[in-house]
Design brief:
The protein has 131 residues and is mainly α. It is 82% helix and 0% strand.
Length: 131
Amino acid sequence: MSSERVERGMDILRQINPQSAQALFSELESIAPDLSRFVAEFAYGDIYARPGLGFREREMITVAALTAQGNAAPQLKSHIVGALNSGCTEQEIIEIMLQMAVYAGFPAAINGIMAAKEVFTARKAHEADPG
């Protein structure tokens, strides 16, 4: 059962953000390999695989939640990439973060905007020089 959940989760993660899929295991392998398995199994293999919402909507919700936390920049950046890869526009991501200013405060929204700026800049640089 567990390996089916992991594979389903990794397939979904690869669709949303291929770089994140590899990084999840690479970064945690030496210290907490079970944690990467838990993320693949539960977050992606169970939750993201559920019917009812598409990847685009799930990524928008995740970007909002991570922005509201205000202290999860690496995860937020990864999910901004996932949101863009799932069909969100840069402007939609900015609007999500502006909405979070109302409910999570300006510092959280500003931190989110700065994370988005880094992602947008990196993507534009990569598009300009893909080699």
